[in-house]
Amino acid sequence: MAKKNGEEKIHEGSHMKKSIASFLLGTALAVTSAGAAFAQDKTVKIGALSDQSGLYADLGGPGSTLAAQMAVEDSGLAAKGWKIDIISGDHQNKPDIGTAIARQWFDVDKVDIIVDVPNSGVALAVNNVIKEKNGVYINSGAATSDLTNAQCSPNTVHWTYDTYMLAHTTGQALVKAGGDSWFFLTADYAFGAALERDTTAVVTANGGKIVGGVKHPLNTPDFSSFLLQAQASKAKIIGLANAGGDTTNTIKQAAEFGIVKGGQKLAALLLFLTDVKAIGLETAQGLNFTETFYWDMDDKTRAFSKKFSGKMKNGAMPTMVQAGVYAGVRHYLKALDALGGNPHDGVKVVEKMKSMPTEDDLFGKGEIQPNGRTIHSAYLFEVKTPSESKGPWDFYKLVGTVPGDQAFTPLSESKCALLKK
Amino acid sequence: MQALYAQLLVGLINGSFYALLSLGLAVIFGMLNIINFAHGALYMMGAFVAYFLLNNDYLSIGYWPALLIAPIIVGIFGMILERTMLQWLTGLDHLYGLLLTFGIALIVQGVFQNYFGSSGLPYAIPDQLKGGMNLGFMFLPIYRGWVVVFSLIVCLGTWFLIEKTRLGGYLRAATENPTLVRAFGINVPRMITLTYGLGVGLAALAGVLSAPINQVRPLMGADLIIVVFAVVVIGGMGSIMGSIITGFALGVIEGMTKYFYPEASNTVVFVLMVLVLLVKPTGLTGRAA
């Protein structure tokens, strides 16, 4: 080699070109051989990250892990030689813990996909980690519409619902029914802020006005102080921009303070099946709200839900969040099956997911928009009275259906950077 | 100004729970020298026992009998804990008692959560206490008024029992010098077991009282217990009257915070705790050890 040094220096230019060419060739070969390798790689690791023990545990939590397991079983991929593992983690509603678990899952446990993640604060933090690690993110539990708007990511699919949808269904319906002055009780973190922002936009656009609001800490046991402020505001509608245990406590205590009897109306902007169970029909009857899934819609949802309920320790029916985890994982596995193997490349898998229309027993037909938002119908429900209810989970009656393209953020209004390409 | 009165009253209601719970803690700490971290779990059990008494297949026992029965059942559970586990920790460092009771709390909460989920079960307000009255400055639910009055009576009764009766005298003497009290023919271990039962019963009673207001949830105690510990620290560990007064006072201060700066309402108690510890490390009414 040393002898040829001089020669090489003379021909440096052409040699350079040659080495670039061979480098490119090598890369191309490497890519193709890697392609051949992943065609045979049929291992997948799913991480279900949720609040496993706190105020959101019933709407996601262990039920979401179960939903992911059922999706894997129902996909039939095991028979095709796939090996799919599921692990679960408890983010305790703390963004630092959520991101630490996500990092460990990608770096140590080699997780491919993270699902569920209720709590918008944690969800947004985890969103960044997944983008950095090029994983797949199917969020079902978090509400913030930022996941597919300002903070959208090529690795993220947001299933089930978001704050824009809640504002444009429940919120809009209430304003149109004459509720033109609003007071907000808002959970003091990313989710509450997003829901208040999106609802405020709808209220003002429809000619209503916001007369006040109060921010309360997450997981507040007693709302009486806040309810008294809401009562004093004389607003027609008290908008509850909170969720889970906070919403159930607010509704229950609002009844105690005679708020609804006094002529003010509660807008439960986000209410889950398990919340209604916790409040009890006596207090919850007549509440209007929006969900994208209810167990008692048709034979398919009933079949799934009864199977699900039989596997839950407390016999609970699935919430829309848990249903979203099931449907999301099913769609993810369909995409992997179509790819013929797991490329362990989040962007690539999510692109495949977006290119395929979604269809499952729980949400029906739909699609994933370029910003990662899943589009499907949303349903306006009303809570039944105790005499209307025929069983332990018979809670809702359907009041109206909003088609997916009207329920979710129109792409023209989205600030998602992925849409500008 | 009217709104301020309303917030004061609401603070007093929350203060009732703080007072009842911190009172139980103070009794247990004062007499047994145990930092009872299981207190929140036992409070939760009180609410659940009331729920089961009402909703079972055999007989439906309502709110009023539950006020007596639930504390007794949970108190017996507490006494079993004391006899089988806690009594072996006498004379050891506080840390052992704290860790043991914390472990018990986690197990109890975990078991309940496994079977009942985290969002809780509804418990209706008894018919006699439904509705509310208009006080001019606010609408006061009758049930909440009842909670303040009832817990005040229970708190003062307990204070009277321990500080002013002969039985309470034995108890305090046994804390000072168990050997000497035993020499007078008094069964000190049994007295200690009963005292633990009393403290636990107070927690369970608070649980029953809160069942119609809050959800009957496995974590209802865990959410509250940290604040209650702060109350006890501010009031002075082991001081009966100190814990009662601080309980009500902090409820009011927290209520005020919810009005003036709601974002800080879940930290204000701890800020106060830091301030008190800086100025008077034994707590407001505590005596130097």
Low-confidence stretches of chain B: none
Strand segment count of chain B? 2
Mean pLDDT of chain A: 90
**What class do helices, strands and sheet pairing of chain A give?**
alpha/beta
Distance between the termini of chain A: 48 Å
Rg estimate of chain B, integer Å: 19 Å
Q: Secondary-structure element sequence of chain A?
A: HHEHEHEHEEHEHEHEHEHHEHHHEEEEEH
Query: Portion of residues in helices of chain B?
Result: over 70%
- Describe the main β-sheet of chain A briefly: 5 strands, parallel
> Mean pLDDT across all residues of chain B, rounded?
89
| Tally of DSSP β-strands of chain A | 15
Distance between the termini of chain B: 43 Å
Strand order of the largest sheet of chain A: 2-1-3-4-5
What's the structural domain tally of chain B? 1
Shape of chain A: globular
Radius of gyration over C-alpha positions of chain A, nearest whole angstrom: 24 Å
Largest beta-sheet characterization of chain B:
2 strands, antiparallel
Strand arrangement within the widest β-sheet of chain B reads 1-2
Number of helices of chain B: 11
**What percentage of the residues of chain B does DSSP assign to strands (E)?**
under 5%
